[in-house]
Design the sequence.
């Protein structure tokens, strides 16, 4: 998913950004002091739009908009804006990084990774986003069959079912009756931000107003960024 481009910042906007970062020694984490979203990521408003502080930090430090890439923290601290702790990478780099860290945390030097629930949820999410199962398998250090079993709910059935039970509905595209896709969800949210009414959204996407409202308020399809 392409992120919205970061605009060129005026000196005043840069100043406003820097005032919200608490710099420390070069190797320390530099916490974001401004507002954060519910995932703990710092957010900053620039020209009536909001951006992740880490993306802006990377942009100001390197003069390069990370664009379609994610910003990955070497320190695993989502609130950190020290450019030395930030690098750009793909979703898969991010997973690889996490898997590697988990392995070293567990003292595993080699071999297959034991998957944990968070991995399983991530695997299902990647599959919904259309990432090839072979590629997911490679990144998690398991077989393609293992991935296929997970995404089809043949293994980790408990989490597959409990997710359903918890929300009272299956998530997103897994729902057999769903007419929404990740792409549609994103464009619905974008249109809503431009001020289009729920009723108009419902008409355009041919779904109920109630469903629109749930999607726009991120009560469902939470896994779509
Ligand atoms: Zn840090």
Sequence:
């Amino acid at each position: 998913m392409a992120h919205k481009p970061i605009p060129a910042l005026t000196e005043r906007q840069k100043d406003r950004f820097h005032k919200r970062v608490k710099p420390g020694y070069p190797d320390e984490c530099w916490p974001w002091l401004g507002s954060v979203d519910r995932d703990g990521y710092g957010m900053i408003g620039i020209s009536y739009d909001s951006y992740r502080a880490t993306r802006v930090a990377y942009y100001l430090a390197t003069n390069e908009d990370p664009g379609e890439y994610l910003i990955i923290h070497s320190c695993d601290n989502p609130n950190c804006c020290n450019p030395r702790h930030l690098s750009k990478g793909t979703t898969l780099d991010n997973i690889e990084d996490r898997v590697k860290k988990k392995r070293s945390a567990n003292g595993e030097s080699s071999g297959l990774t034991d998957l944990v629930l968070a991995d399983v949820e991530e695997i299902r999410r990647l599959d919904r986003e259309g990432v090839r199962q072979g590629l997911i398998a490679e990144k998690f250090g398991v077989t393609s069959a293992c991935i296929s079993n997970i995404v089809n709910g043949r293994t980790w059935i408990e989490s597959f079912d409990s997710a359903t039970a918890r929300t009272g509905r299956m998530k997103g595209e897994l729902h057999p009756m769903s007419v929404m896709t990740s792409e549609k969800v994103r464009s619905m949210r974008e249109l809503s931000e431009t001020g289009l009414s729920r009723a108009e959204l419902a008409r355009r996407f041919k779904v109920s107003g109630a469903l629109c409202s749930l999607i726009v308020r991120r009560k469902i399809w939470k896994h779509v960024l």
User: Anything to note?
Assistant: Residues 29, 73, 75, 77, 80, 82, 85 surround zinc ion (CB under 6 Å).
